[in-house]
Amino acid sequence: MPNASRIVNGKNLSKLEALKNPHVLELVDRFVNLCKPTRVSVITDEPEEIAYVRQLALETGEERLLRMKDHTIHYDGYYDQARDKGHTAVLLPAGRSLSRGINSVERETGLREVLGLLDGAMRGKECLVRFFCLGPTDSRFSISALQITDSSYVAHSEDLLYRPGYEQFKKLEGSDGFFTFVHSAGELDERNCTRNVAKRRIYIDVIDRKVYSVNNQYAGNSLGLKKLALRLAVYKANHEDWLTEHMLVMGVHPPGKDRVTYFTGAYPSACGKTSTAMIPGQSIVGDDIAYIRMDEDGNARAVNIESGVFGIIRDVNPLDDPLIHMALTTQRELIFSNVLVTDDVPYWLGMGRDDVPDKGVNHSGDWWEGKRDREGKVIPLAHPNARYTMRISVLENADPRIHDPDGVIVRGIFYGGRDSDTNVPVLESLSWEHGVYLGATIESETTSATLGRTGVRQSNPMAIMDFMVVPLGTYLSNHMSFGRRLRNRPRVFATNYFLKHEGEYVNAKVDKKVWLLWAEGRIYDEYEAIETPVGYLPRYQDLRSLFRETFDKEYEEEDYELQFSLRLDKLLGKIARMGEIYGPEPGMPEEFWTVLRQQRDDLEALKSKTNRSVVPPSFFQ
Predict the structure, then answer these.
(1) Alpha-carbon 134 to chain mean position
(2) Contact at 8 Å (CB) between 245 and 463?
(3) How many angstroms separate the CA atoms of 151 and 223, rounded?
(4) b/e string for 450-472 if b means 16 or more Cβ within 10 A?
(5) How far apart are the first and last CA of the chain?
């Protein structure tokens, strides 16, 4: 390491050399020389070295201790509180293009810009060189990841969220088959928050398997291994023969039956992903990102690439999220971010307490009730996107197979959207191709807090649009072909927890447990179903039994008819929207259009036959 050897020397250099990987040595040399830190620490998998990272975060002020042992608080800057979509871009060679809504920058131009911002960005700070593994170690799912950062908070967060990977790097046998993430928080202000957020950049170089992130601390922008690594893996999977998905992985445990059935599930934000993963009585493998590969028996197997949770803390309370709430209020290593702290105790929005203080410290600095920002907006006691970071293993419902190198066999897939007037609460797809279509046509209605008006539908195929780095046609074609190769295809289900009638939700929040158990039973053919043009619907008598067994509650046939009727005009309207959205998209799989045309023709014929705009499920029996 000729250029960086003046500060990467002694034990730190020996740790790098022990990997016997010239690509790692070259990268560390290059970026240390570019970013110009005062000191470099190479961290292995040894517990005392990992503990040093947390201690460094406390010493530098990026985190501070709270009253509960092992709890810490971190603050991002007031204008660094969420993923920066506007300054996150894929670096593309000249002449290449991506699908709608995917930001891109010409590769050479983008590299010059971001490397210029990183030049000297670590001056006066300590650089941490970290090694992690995405997915279980010693597994065919494993992807090694090199993280170079000057933020001890970022490095500490990754220790909670990911598996140590220094020893895994040795198994690369000198190859360059790993992802690289270079991050600098940039210049910090008096609160240890990024000062120059206007120069925040997050650039993803899928060609070179690198992510560059500068002038930010919010984990969605700075933690390379999270949604940034998701993008690199999406690119890799779609150029190979497997899937990288923005999906939960969970085990479903039907009462009185000695089995566990594993599902994955994709849900856009605010569509029920976390609440599904945390349904009482079930187990969680992961709540965010999954790698899915075919095994030698033709099964789809999935792993959680993470081993922790970076969750939104708003509305976590003893009633709605008892397992998470218990983990947040008892002793374990975890990081709170951007919540109110008074007398070293954290408080957040919707925590279910009446005695929340009216002053303290939060993401705006010293806070008092009624405080306003420079735009005149009232600052809430905690940011709506405030977070907690902790290991999944601390949750009572953690699945015992979370670190299984073989993953879990996926028997079912959920695709969940949010609409108030179109889709039924749950249905099963008619085929794998129809299931891919259901995922591709996910929509999520906005709320007033999002765009200032309600009912605006946003298309979000497979809930992964924000992280897409290949053309949609390529991505959906890969799904189609992956399913064709499987001998044991997962059943595919669509959910909608947000259907309304006369302005009121037609289901209680907890009803999703019944939809889940019905889907699990369908996999074993324990329930018959009603075939309709849009999919297989549950029978009333099966749901009635499940409601009795699950909640000791009567489920009225009148409610069933309201919830599971086909709203023909609304469904045809959605099909028309999908035609407009995907019509200009090049390379779309023909199977998508076959399903769309069949659904449109069948629904139009049904409307003509019945002369009705709403058809109850009893019509099909």
Answers:
(1) 14
(2) no
(3) 10
(4) eeeeeeebbbbbbbbbbbbbbbb
(5) 74
- Looking at residue 461, its amino acid is P
Amino acid at 603: L
Q: What's the length of the chain?
A: 621
In 282-333, DSSP assigns E strands to: 283-286, 290-294, 300-304, 308-312
What is the residue whose two structure tokens read 């599904």? 276
Tally of CB atoms within 10 A around 69 = 10
Catalytic residues: 271
Q: How confident is the model at residue 451 (pLDDT cuts 50, 70, 90)?
A: very low
| pLDDT given for residue 449 in this prediction | 36
Distances (CA, A) of 46 to 53, 132, 326, 372: 11, 13, 29, 46
Dihedrals φ, ψ of 389, to 5°?
-130, 120
Q: Which of 395, 398, 394 is nearest to 284 (CA)?
A: 398
Q: Which sign, positive or negative, has the C-alpha torsion 63, 66, 71, 74?
A: negative
Kind plus residue range of the DSSP H or E element containing 15: helix 10-17
pLDDT of residue 460: 94
Mean pLDDT on 162-178 = 97
From 407, 425, 429, 408, select the one nearest 416 (Cα to Cα): 425
Rounded distance, CA 408 to CA 450, Å? 36
Q: For residues 325, 275, 488 and 253, what is the CA-based torsion angle, rounded to 10 degrees? A: 60
Q: Can you give the pLDDT at residue 5?
A: 57
Structure tokens at 88: 């996150």
148, 154, 157, 163 alpha-carbon torsion, rounded to 10° = -10
Q: Which tokens is 612 given?
A: 């009705």
Q: How far apart are CA 207 and CA 223, in angstroms?
A: 20
pLDDT band for position 446 (50/70/90)?
confident
Q: What is the DSSP letter of 380?
A: P
Instruction: Find residue 126's DSSP bridge partners.
Output: 39
Residue 452 pLDDT level (bands cut at 50, 70, 90): very low
For residue 46, what are the contacts with CB-CB under 8 A and spacing of at least 6? none
The residue type of 468 is M
Are 490 and 413 spatial neighbours (Cβ–Cβ below 8 Å)? Answer: yes
Residues 6+ apart with CB under 8 A from 6: none
Q: DSSP string spanning 102-115?
A: --EEEHHHHHHHHH
Mean pLDDT of the 132-143 span: 98
Res. 455 pLDDT band, cuts 50 70 90: low
pLDDT tens digits for range 208-237 = 999 999 999 998 888 889 999 999 999 999
The DSSP symbol for 289 reads -
Q: pLDDT above 70 covers what percent of the chain? A: 98
- Quote the CA–CA distance of 33 and 36 in Å, as a whole number: 5
Nearest C-alpha neighbor of 545 from the set 524, 527, 566, 519: 527
Q: Which residue has the tokens 């709540």?
A: 287
